[in-house]
Prior knowledge:
Layout: E1 2-5, H1 20-28, E2 32-36, H2 47-53, E3 56-58, H3 61-67, E4 70-72, H4 79-82, E5 90-93, H5 101-110, E6 113-116, H6 131-148, E7 170-174, H7 178-189, E8 193-198, H8 201-211, E9 215-219, H9 225-231, E10 234-237, H10 252-255, E11 263-266, E12 287-290, E13 293-296, H11 306-327, H12 329-334, H13 337-340, E14 343-346, E15 349-350, H14 353-359, H15 366-369
Parallel strand pairs: 1-2, 1-4, 2-3, 4-5, 5-6, 7-8, 7-10, 8-9, 10-11, 11-13
Antiparallel strand pairs: 6-14, 12-13, 14-15
Amino acid sequence: MRIGVPKEIKPQENRIGLTPESVKTLISQGHEVLVENNGGFEAGFDNDQYTKAGAKIASSAADIFNDAEIIVKVKEPQKVEVDMIRENQIVYTYLHLAAAKELTEGLIKSRSINIAYETVTDDNGRLPLLAPMSAVAGRMSVQAGAHCLEKNQKGRGLLLGGAPGVTGGTVVILGGGVVGENAAVIATGMQAKVHIVDKSEARLNQLVEMFGDKIIPEQSDKIDLNNLIAEADLVVGGVLIPGAEAPKLVTKDMLKLMKRGSVIVDVAIDQGGCVETSKPTTHGDPTYIVDDVVHYCVANMPGGVPRTSTLALNKATLPFLVKLANKGYQKALGEDKNFLAGLNVHKGHVTYKAVADVFGHEYLDPGEAIKN
């Protein structure tokens, strides 16, 4: 198959869909790979590395969308890209459609085949293609939050890790999944006081096994979240419902309970955010203030560390892409129910129920969709 990798054009997005090493793997399987000129430069991969791996360098995104059978990206297609997607073309990337009505409608209209990294599952119901970026975002969330707490960032003027004789700050992590776990790695390493809130007692027990008394587990139905939010210097929102809009756990009224200059980092912003006052921001202008609380809501946090992120993402996405290219999408998805769970929009039909429900579209079972 002919696989195309355009340069990412979302603001401050510097990752790329394939590394040169991934290109080499696909070429060895008999596929052709087109990479947009300087597409990987910001992630530390230059044209020469791609050509040595066997790729052809395309001068423009238009050439790639025109020629490729599979488009491999990192972020959701932007409007100019949606307009270039062809009927029956396969798009393999993060989509986050539950928070993107216009994109959903555009993909439906294109009659293309759209596989979302974030809804591919494994046998344990986890999300293996979302996990590496969730891990990066989780680790970055505390790093970013600690920076936002500095006075020149309009924060409280507090060092999260404290100082000799001075206690550190309090971090409240909402959600004990991959984001929450990795946020805790950094927050406990900084010697902050760390609360992790999750609805699952079993998951909280796992986290206690990992972190011991460095964390305070909080079962969501047994606590007063208002009190925790009031205590927090940094709140990390890491709650996820696969493929669906994130629940609003922190309301606008709750902000009034928070300390002046405290910080919220809403990692769930790709799925609409788990804080009522959250709105997407960029690496170029990452924060804004509501009720004296600093909000950091960058929708592509891992894009700030593109080399690490691209390498981590490819380890997860490449095996599925190889199956897709070798077998064709119908066979690849038909043989693997976990991969099939990634199919969100297929030839004009919404094939992921949470997306169909949120926008009022008719839902078509993906297993039925790929038969046509």
